[in-house]
Amino acid sequence: MKYWLMKSEPSDVSIDYLSQLPKQTIEWYGVRNYQARNFMRDLMNDGDLAIFWHSSCREPGVYGIVKVEGAVHPDSYQFDPGSKYYDASSTTTNPRWWCVDVKLVKKTKYISITELRKYQELSEMQVLKKGNRLSITPVTKTEWEFISNLLQN
DNA sequence: GCCAACGTTGGC
DNA sequence: GCCAACGTTGGC
Q1: CA–CA dist A112, A61 (Å, integer)
Q2: Along the 153 residues of chain A, how does pLDDT read in single tens digits?
Q3: Chain A residues 111 to 140 with C-beta below 7 Å from nucleic strand B
Q4: What are the φ and ψ backbone dihedral angles of A112, each rounded to 5 degrees?
Q5: pLDDT for the residue A76
Q6: Hey, what domains does chain A have and what are their CATH numbers?
Q7: Which nucleotides on chain B have any atom < 7 A from a protein Cβ?
Q8: Residue A151: CB atoms within 10 Å
Q9: Is the Cβ atom of A58 within 7 Å of strand B at any atom?
């Protein structure tokens, strides 16, 4: 099993929105970056765990834990001409954008990006690095366990 | 709202 | 295949 961090803009999909969905499960639509797509398409597996992160907001940071549910599939929004994620050059026979579904495992206490930056143990964490823009990044087992401990305190 | 960082586009 | 221009991301 692998560990990930997945960013979401709370004005789009927030942790509270996710927790109010009937199955607390959502398609991780809208990723239009090849590296992030490849993580989902090629490396994610059913049962992988991810940190749910709010970005582009007043209080960026950790808000919960989610789990990958089922298999990777084409992002449905790429075929919807009314969506801002529509991609006219993608076809159903050869889709360009892929994604997974994630299910909420639990809402956690909030840990701010400012706090996370204080820990030497997390100094190599992708999301904390200068210039980081990737919306999906791998998290090491060590980082995962360190953050799990923070969440228990 | 600023702006550094970085990905993508497209002319050559 | 280089690289300048452009667009987007996202913390602050």
Answers
A1: 4
A2: 999 999 999 999 999 999 999 999 999 999 999 999 999 999 999 999 999 999 999 999 999 999 999 999 999 999 988 888 988 888 888 899 999 999 999 999 999 999 999 999 999 999 999 989 999 999 999 999 999 999 997
A3: 130-134
A4: -75, 155
A5: 92
A6: 3-147 (3.10.590.10)
A7: 4-8
A8: 15
A9: no
A30, A28, A102, A29: which is closest to A65 by C-alpha?
Answer: A102
Q: How far apart are CA A72 and CA A101, in angstroms?
A: 8
Q: Which nucleotide is nearest to A132 (CA to C1')?
A: B5
Report how far residue A134's alpha carbon sits from residue A35's, in angstroms, rounded to the nearest whole number.
Answer: 8
> What does the pLDDT look like over A26-51, one tens digit per residue?
999 999 999 999 999 999 999 999 99
Q: Does at least one atom of strand C sit less than 7 Å from the CB of A1?
A: no
Q: Are A68 and A100 in contact (CB under 8 A)?
A: yes
User: Could you say which DSSP state residue A115 is in?
Assistant: H
In this structure, what token pair is assigned to residue A62? 């950790």
Structure tokens at A105: 């495992």
Q: Give the H/E segment covering residue A27.
A: strand A25-27
- Contact present, A114 and A15 (Cβ < 8 Å): no
